[in-house]
Amino acid sequence: MATKIIIDTDPGQDDAVALLLALASPDELELLGIVTVAGNVGLAQNSRNALKIVELSGKINTKVYAGCDRPIRRVPVTAEHVHGQSGLDGPNLPDAKITLQDMHGVDFIVQTLQNAAPGEITICALGPLTNIAMALVRAPEIAPKIKQIVLMGGGYFEGGNITPTAEFNIYVDPEAADVVVHCGAPIVMIPLDVTHQALATKERLANFADLGNKTGTAIHQMLTFSERFDLEKYQWQGAPLHDPCVIAYLLDPDMFTGRLINVEIEVDSELTRGMTVADFWGVTDRNPNVTYMRHIDADAYYAMLTDRLVRLP
Questions:
Q1: Is residue 81 annotated as a catalytic residue, yes or no?
Q2: pLDDT > 90: what percent of the chain?
Q3: What is the tens place of the pLDDT at every residue in 13-32?
Q4: pTM, two decimal places
Q5: Domain layout of the chain by residue ranges
Q6: CA 90 to CA 226: how far, in whole Å?
Q7: How far apart are CA 88 and CA 16, in angstroms?
Protein backbone atom coordinates (compact mmCIF):
# COMPACT_ATOMS: atom_id res chain seq x y z
CA MET A 1 0.00 0.00 0.00
CA ALA A 2 1.29 3.43 -0.92
CA THR A 3 2.62 5.67 1.87
CA LYS A 4 0.50 8.79 2.32
CA ILE A 5 2.62 11.92 2.20
CA ILE A 6 2.36 15.70 2.36
CA ILE A 7 5.19 17.64 0.73
CA ASP A 8 6.05 21.04 2.19
CA THR A 9 8.32 22.95 -0.19
CA ASP A 10 9.75 26.21 -1.55
CA PRO A 11 10.49 25.32 -5.20
CA GLY A 12 13.60 25.75 -6.02
CA GLN A 13 15.19 23.65 -8.77
CA ASP A 14 16.10 20.79 -6.45
CA ASP A 15 12.64 20.97 -4.83
CA ALA A 16 11.18 20.64 -8.33
CA VAL A 17 13.12 17.43 -8.94
CA ALA A 18 11.90 16.09 -5.58
CA LEU A 19 8.29 16.86 -6.49
CA LEU A 20 8.70 15.19 -9.87
CA LEU A 21 10.26 12.10 -8.26
CA ALA A 22 7.30 11.78 -5.90
CA LEU A 23 4.79 12.33 -8.69
CA ALA A 24 6.56 9.67 -10.77
CA SER A 25 6.19 7.10 -7.95
CA PRO A 26 2.42 6.70 -7.36
CA ASP A 27 2.67 3.00 -6.53
CA GLU A 28 4.78 3.77 -3.46
CA LEU A 29 3.71 7.32 -2.56
CA GLU A 30 0.20 8.76 -2.35
CA LEU A 31 0.70 12.52 -2.48
CA LEU A 32 -2.18 14.08 -0.53
CA GLY A 33 -1.11 17.64 -1.25
CA ILE A 34 1.74 20.07 -1.76
CA VAL A 35 2.11 23.01 0.64
CA THR A 36 4.32 25.96 -0.26
CA VAL A 37 6.33 28.14 2.11
CA ALA A 38 8.49 31.25 1.85
CA GLY A 39 12.11 30.25 1.39
CA ASN A 40 14.15 30.12 -1.79
CA VAL A 41 12.00 33.02 -3.02
CA GLY A 42 8.80 34.59 -1.72
CA LEU A 43 5.64 32.58 -1.09
CA ALA A 44 3.68 33.78 -4.12
CA GLN A 45 6.44 32.84 -6.55
CA ASN A 46 7.11 29.53 -4.83
CA SER A 47 3.41 28.74 -5.20
CA ARG A 48 3.50 29.58 -8.91
CA ASN A 49 6.53 27.34 -9.28
CA ALA A 50 4.80 24.42 -7.57
CA LEU A 51 1.83 24.72 -9.93
CA LYS A 52 4.17 24.78 -12.94
CA ILE A 53 5.92 21.62 -11.77
CA VAL A 54 2.63 19.82 -11.22
CA GLU A 55 1.57 20.67 -14.77
CA LEU A 56 4.95 19.57 -16.14
CA SER A 57 4.41 16.19 -14.47
CA GLY A 58 0.99 15.76 -16.05
CA LYS A 59 -0.50 14.99 -12.61
CA ILE A 60 -2.82 17.98 -12.74
CA ASN A 61 -5.22 16.69 -10.07
CA THR A 62 -2.50 17.20 -7.43
CA LYS A 63 -3.64 19.85 -4.95
CA VAL A 64 -1.35 22.76 -4.07
CA TYR A 65 -1.86 24.97 -1.00
CA ALA A 66 -0.08 28.21 -0.10
CA GLY A 67 1.23 28.34 3.45
CA CYS A 68 3.15 30.93 5.47
CA ASP A 69 4.71 33.92 3.75
CA ARG A 70 7.35 34.61 6.40
CA PRO A 71 9.20 32.92 9.27
CA ILE A 72 7.66 32.78 12.74
CA ARG A 73 9.64 35.74 14.10
CA ARG A 74 12.50 36.45 11.70
CA VAL A 75 12.86 38.78 8.74
CA PRO A 76 12.50 36.67 5.56
CA VAL A 77 15.70 35.47 3.90
CA THR A 78 15.64 34.27 0.29
CA ALA A 79 18.14 32.73 -2.14
CA GLU A 80 17.70 34.34 -5.55
CA HIS A 81 21.51 34.35 -5.78
CA VAL A 82 21.30 30.58 -6.16
CA HIS A 83 17.93 29.91 -7.78
CA GLY A 84 17.42 33.04 -9.89
CA GLN A 85 14.73 35.68 -9.60
CA SER A 86 11.96 33.20 -10.34
CA GLY A 87 13.36 30.59 -7.98
CA LEU A 88 13.13 28.19 -10.91
CA ASP A 89 15.38 29.78 -13.52
CA GLY A 90 16.65 27.60 -16.35
CA PRO A 91 13.66 26.21 -18.27
CA ASN A 92 10.98 28.44 -19.74
CA LEU A 93 7.98 26.74 -18.19
CA PRO A 94 4.58 28.16 -19.12
CA ASP A 95 2.32 29.72 -16.51
CA ALA A 96 0.14 27.06 -14.97
CA LYS A 97 -3.54 26.71 -15.84
CA ILE A 98 -4.29 24.93 -12.58
CA THR A 99 -4.75 27.11 -9.50
CA LEU A 100 -4.09 27.04 -5.77
CA GLN A 101 -6.61 25.60 -3.35
CA ASP A 102 -8.50 28.16 -1.26
CA MET A 103 -7.52 26.59 2.07
CA HIS A 104 -4.39 27.87 3.85
CA GLY A 105 -1.57 25.33 3.82
CA VAL A 106 -1.32 25.16 7.61
CA ASP A 107 -5.08 24.46 7.83
CA PHE A 108 -4.63 21.68 5.28
CA ILE A 109 -1.83 20.08 7.30
CA VAL A 110 -3.81 20.31 10.56
CA GLN A 111 -7.09 19.03 9.15
CA THR A 112 -5.50 16.21 7.17
CA LEU A 113 -3.64 14.92 10.20
CA GLN A 114 -6.63 15.33 12.53
CA ASN A 115 -8.64 13.13 10.19
CA ALA A 116 -5.90 10.51 9.83
CA ALA A 117 -5.20 7.37 11.80
CA PRO A 118 -2.17 7.46 14.14
CA GLY A 119 1.07 7.01 12.20
CA GLU A 120 -0.66 7.18 8.85
CA ILE A 121 0.91 10.22 7.16
CA THR A 122 4.52 11.14 6.46
CA ILE A 123 5.51 14.79 6.08
CA CYS A 124 8.26 15.53 3.59
CA ALA A 125 9.89 18.89 4.36
CA LEU A 126 12.00 20.40 1.59
CA GLY A 127 12.17 24.02 2.78
CA PRO A 128 12.01 26.12 5.93
CA LEU A 129 9.87 24.42 8.56
CA THR A 130 7.48 27.32 9.23
CA ASN A 131 4.25 25.64 8.09
CA ILE A 132 4.92 22.41 9.95
CA ALA A 133 5.85 24.22 13.16
CA MET A 134 2.77 26.43 12.97
CA ALA A 135 0.58 23.35 12.53
CA LEU A 136 2.19 21.64 15.54
CA VAL A 137 1.87 24.74 17.74
CA ARG A 138 -1.75 25.29 16.76
CA ALA A 139 -2.78 21.66 17.11
CA PRO A 140 -0.20 19.71 19.15
CA GLU A 141 -2.50 16.69 19.14
CA ILE A 142 -1.52 16.03 15.51
CA ALA A 143 2.03 14.97 16.43
CA PRO A 144 1.06 11.33 17.22
CA LYS A 145 -0.73 11.14 13.88
CA ILE A 146 2.55 11.70 12.02
CA LYS A 147 4.31 8.54 10.85
CA GLN A 148 7.53 10.48 10.43
CA ILE A 149 8.85 13.85 9.30
CA VAL A 150 11.60 13.43 6.73
CA LEU A 151 13.36 16.73 6.17
CA MET A 152 16.21 18.09 4.11
CA GLY A 153 18.04 20.47 6.37
CA GLY A 154 20.94 21.03 8.67
CA GLY A 155 24.56 20.12 8.48
CA TYR A 156 27.25 19.33 10.99
CA PHE A 157 30.33 17.72 9.47
CA GLU A 158 29.97 19.88 6.35
CA GLY A 159 29.12 23.09 8.21
CA GLY A 160 26.60 25.42 6.59
CA ASN A 161 25.77 26.76 3.14
CA ILE A 162 24.25 30.16 4.02
CA THR A 163 26.55 30.89 6.99
CA PRO A 164 29.65 29.01 8.15
CA THR A 165 27.49 27.01 10.59
CA ALA A 166 23.93 26.99 9.21
CA GLU A 167 22.14 25.28 6.35
CA PHE A 168 19.64 27.52 4.54
CA ASN A 169 16.34 25.81 5.44
CA ILE A 170 17.13 25.82 9.16
CA TYR A 171 18.68 29.31 9.12
CA VAL A 172 15.60 30.92 7.56
CA ASP A 173 13.36 29.86 10.46
CA PRO A 174 15.36 28.35 13.33
CA GLU A 175 12.47 28.75 15.78
CA ALA A 176 10.32 26.59 13.52
CA ALA A 177 13.06 23.97 13.26
CA ASP A 178 13.36 23.96 17.06
CA VAL A 179 9.62 23.26 17.39
CA VAL A 180 9.77 20.44 14.85
CA VAL A 181 12.75 18.55 16.29
CA HIS A 182 11.10 18.58 19.73
CA CYS A 183 7.54 17.73 18.64
CA GLY A 184 7.79 14.06 19.61
CA ALA A 185 7.13 12.65 16.13
CA PRO A 186 9.86 10.52 14.54
CA ILE A 187 12.27 12.82 12.66
CA VAL A 188 14.64 11.84 9.86
CA MET A 189 17.13 14.58 8.98
CA ILE A 190 18.98 14.50 5.67
CA PRO A 191 21.67 17.16 6.09
CA LEU A 192 24.34 18.71 3.90
CA ASP A 193 26.61 15.94 5.18
CA VAL A 194 24.59 13.59 2.95
CA THR A 195 23.61 15.85 0.05
CA HIS A 196 27.20 16.97 -0.51
CA GLN A 197 27.91 13.34 -1.43
CA ALA A 198 25.18 13.38 -4.11
CA LEU A 199 26.75 15.55 -6.80
CA ALA A 200 25.16 16.21 -10.19
CA THR A 201 28.25 15.64 -12.30
CA LYS A 202 28.25 16.40 -16.02
CA GLU A 203 27.62 12.73 -16.75
CA ARG A 204 24.66 12.58 -14.39
CA LEU A 205 23.22 15.81 -15.79
CA ALA A 206 23.56 14.43 -19.30
CA ASN A 207 21.49 11.42 -18.27
CA PHE A 208 18.58 13.76 -17.50
CA ALA A 209 18.89 15.40 -20.91
CA ASP A 210 18.89 11.94 -22.52
CA LEU A 211 15.62 10.80 -20.91
CA GLY A 212 13.78 11.82 -24.07
CA ASN A 213 10.87 13.58 -22.34
CA LYS A 214 9.94 17.17 -21.46
CA THR A 215 10.63 16.46 -17.81
CA GLY A 216 14.21 15.39 -18.44
CA THR A 217 14.89 18.42 -20.61
CA ALA A 218 13.46 20.78 -17.99
CA ILE A 219 15.46 19.16 -15.19
CA HIS A 220 18.67 19.42 -17.20
CA GLN A 221 17.98 23.11 -17.79
CA MET A 222 17.10 23.72 -14.13
CA LEU A 223 20.16 22.05 -12.69
CA THR A 224 22.52 23.49 -15.29
CA PHE A 225 21.37 26.93 -14.12
CA SER A 226 21.39 26.34 -10.37
CA GLU A 227 24.68 24.45 -10.26
CA ARG A 228 26.76 27.45 -11.35
CA PHE A 229 26.68 28.92 -7.84
CA ASP A 230 27.81 25.73 -6.09
CA LEU A 231 30.44 24.90 -8.71
CA GLU A 232 32.05 28.28 -8.16
CA LYS A 233 31.78 28.02 -4.36
CA TYR A 234 32.97 24.46 -3.84
CA GLN A 235 35.11 23.86 -6.95
CA TRP A 236 33.70 20.34 -7.16
CA GLN A 237 32.91 18.24 -10.23
CA GLY A 238 29.19 18.75 -9.68
CA ALA A 239 26.66 20.52 -7.48
CA PRO A 240 24.71 18.85 -4.65
CA LEU A 241 21.16 17.76 -5.46
CA HIS A 242 19.61 18.21 -2.03
CA ASP A 243 15.84 17.86 -1.80
CA PRO A 244 15.16 14.72 -3.88
CA CYS A 245 17.07 12.84 -1.18
CA VAL A 246 13.94 13.12 0.99
CA ILE A 247 11.80 11.30 -1.57
CA ALA A 248 14.58 8.82 -2.35
CA TYR A 249 14.75 7.97 1.36
CA LEU A 250 11.05 7.06 1.37
CA LEU A 251 11.46 4.94 -1.75
CA ASP A 252 14.64 3.16 -0.63
CA PRO A 253 15.83 3.92 2.91
CA ASP A 254 18.61 1.35 2.54
CA MET A 255 20.30 3.85 0.22
CA PHE A 256 21.13 5.87 3.34
CA THR A 257 22.96 5.21 6.59
CA GLY A 258 22.81 7.16 9.84
CA ARG A 259 21.95 6.87 13.50
CA LEU A 260 19.48 8.10 16.13
CA ILE A 261 21.09 11.02 17.97
CA ASN A 262 20.27 14.26 19.75
CA VAL A 263 19.98 17.34 17.56
CA GLU A 264 19.44 20.83 18.94
CA ILE A 265 18.83 24.03 16.96
CA GLU A 266 20.67 27.23 17.85
CA VAL A 267 18.13 30.06 18.11
CA ASP A 268 19.86 32.62 20.32
CA SER A 269 23.31 33.32 18.90
CA GLU A 270 23.49 35.52 15.80
CA LEU A 271 26.93 34.08 15.07
CA THR A 272 25.65 30.50 14.86
CA ARG A 273 21.93 31.11 14.25
CA GLY A 274 20.29 28.05 12.75
CA MET A 275 23.15 25.68 13.50
CA THR A 276 22.14 22.03 13.89
CA VAL A 277 24.14 20.87 16.89
CA ALA A 278 24.33 17.17 16.13
CA ASP A 279 25.63 14.98 18.95
CA PHE A 280 26.72 12.31 16.48
CA TRP A 281 29.30 10.78 18.84
CA GLY A 282 27.07 10.76 21.93
CA VAL A 283 29.18 13.08 24.06
CA THR A 284 26.15 14.47 25.94
CA ASP A 285 23.36 12.82 27.87
CA ARG A 286 20.67 14.64 25.91
CA ASN A 287 17.83 12.44 24.67
CA PRO A 288 18.04 11.30 21.04
CA ASN A 289 15.33 12.94 18.93
CA VAL A 290 16.48 12.73 15.30
CA THR A 291 17.59 9.94 13.00
CA TYR A 292 20.51 11.79 11.46
CA MET A 293 21.62 10.51 8.08
CA ARG A 294 25.35 10.51 7.34
CA HIS A 295 25.94 8.70 4.03
CA ILE A 296 24.18 8.00 0.72
CA ASP A 297 24.83 5.63 -2.18
CA ALA A 298 25.06 8.39 -4.79
CA ASP A 299 25.16 6.05 -7.78
CA ALA A 300 21.97 4.32 -6.65
CA TYR A 301 20.38 7.73 -6.03
CA TYR A 302 20.97 9.00 -9.55
CA ALA A 303 19.98 5.64 -11.04
CA MET A 304 16.66 5.91 -9.17
CA LEU A 305 16.11 9.45 -10.44
CA THR A 306 16.56 8.55 -14.09
CA ASP A 307 14.58 5.32 -13.72
CA ARG A 308 11.59 7.13 -12.21
CA LEU A 309 11.63 10.43 -14.09
CA VAL A 310 11.58 8.78 -17.50
CA ARG A 311 8.00 7.73 -16.64
CA LEU A 312 6.77 11.34 -16.78
CA PRO A 313 5.72 13.29 -19.90
A1: no
A2: 92
A3: 999 999 999 999 999 999 99
A4: 0.97
A5: 3-309
A6: 8
A7: 8
